[in-house]
Design brief:
Length: about 180
């Protein structure tokens, strides 16, 4: 009887171990590959790729703030006052703008609440004369080729720590860097 009870306690552990065996280590609970539908279709492939718009044109705060801001409709309307006004998604965008509403974009890249990520620090640290924003590609992938943005990297702690170890200049590895 004792042996049966002891064996039953091991079953949940065995199931958990089997689940972990099929996961990419360090990404459990993360959203790699996550690409939600947005309330209004937006193609980074068109805007950043074909039209070569810089990330900072829309994400204006990325160089100066801890957080990268989602563009306001004012930024969209800089072009869409006259460009593409006959297309359905642009009509929807313009209607929201003229009604004084916002677009509730679905967040794609998520980190746990206890993690503090500073966009400004990463953008400035990894900028070069040839490429102002290599850190964007490191974390976000080839956004210029994405019709629908997806989470390219796991953004797990292990993934970030490996990046801090491998990049030049090396990033800090003390816990308080990200857990404040």
């Amino acid at each position: 009887m004792f042996l049966v009870q002891r064996s039953l306690k091991l079953i949940p552990l065995i199931i958990i171990a089997m689940l972990f065996a099929n996961c990419e280590w360090g990404s459990i609970g993360y959203n790699k590959g996550y690409k939600p539908d947005q309330p209004i279709p937006f193609s980074h492939k068109l805007h950043a790729g074909e039209y070569k718009m810089a990330c900072v044109y829309c994400h204006t705060q990325v160089e100066v703030a801890k957080h990268s801001a989602v563009p306001s409709l004012n930024i969209c309307m800089n072009c869409h006052q006259v460009v593409g006004i006959d297309k359905e998604p642009i009509k929807k965008l313009r209607q929201k703008y003229f009604d004084g509403e916002t677009v509730n974009w679905v967040k794609v890249h998520m980190l746990p609440d206890h993690v503090k990520f500073n966009h400004k620090r990463h953008v400035h640290r990894f900028s070069t004369a040839e490429d102002r924003y290599p850190a964007c590609k490191t974390c976000h992938g080839e956004i210029k080729q994405m019709d629908v943005v997806e989470q390219h990297s796991s953004l797990s702690m292990g993934w970030c720590v490996n990046c801090h170890r491998e990049q030049e200049p090396k990033g800090p590895l003390n816990c308080s860097t990200c857990h404040q």
